[in-house]
Amino acid sequence: MRRIRRKRTTVETHEVITLHTSRPGMALHCPECSRVVRMLAPEEAAALSGVSLRTLFRRIESGELHFAQTPEGQVYVCEHSISQT
């Protein structure tokens, strides 16, 4: 009789997010905070808050996060509102 040998392999994965931006947050007026605050690009805001871009935009649409939109259509998220949630 032959013996059957079994081998078990365990794989662990870790995710590390490093954010490098050529333009760090901009100081813009937040209409909700009524003051000038650091505004972040959506990708940076999502990484900072630990959520996906889709979740970030849902939070913006629900009014949970403050944002400003440039005339070109770019969205920036209020850093102060991220730290409040």
Structural notes for this entry:
- This protein has about 80 residues and is of the alpha+beta class.
- It has three helices and four strands.
- The chain has a domain at about 25-85: Orthogonal Bundle (Multidrug-efflux Transporter Regulator, Chain: A, Domain 2).
- It has helices at about 40-50, 55-60, 80-85; strands at about 25-30, 35-40, 65-70, 75-80.
- Strands 1-2-4-3 form a four-stranded antiparallel sheet.
- The relative contact order is 0.20.
Largest sheet: 4 strands, antiparallel
Through-space gap between termini: 64 Å
What general outline do the C-alpha atoms trace?
rod-shaped
By DSSP, the count of extended strands is: 4
Separate helix tally: 3
CATH fold topology of the domain at 26-84: Multidrug-efflux Transporter Regulator, Chain: A, Domain 2
Secondary-structure element order, N to C: EEHHEEH
Do you know the CATH architecture of the domain at 26-84? Orthogonal Bundle
Helical amount: 25-40%
Radius of gyration: 21 Å
What order do the helices and strands come in, and which of them pair?
Elements: E1 26-30, E2 35-40, H1 42-49, H2 53-61, E3 67-69, E4 75-78, H3 79-84
Antiparallel strand pairs: 1-2, 2-4, 3-4
Summarize the structure.
The protein is an alpha+beta fold and 85 residues long. It has a domain at 26-84: Multidrug-efflux Transporter Regulator, Chain: A, Domain 2 (Orthogonal Bundle), CATH 1.10.1660.
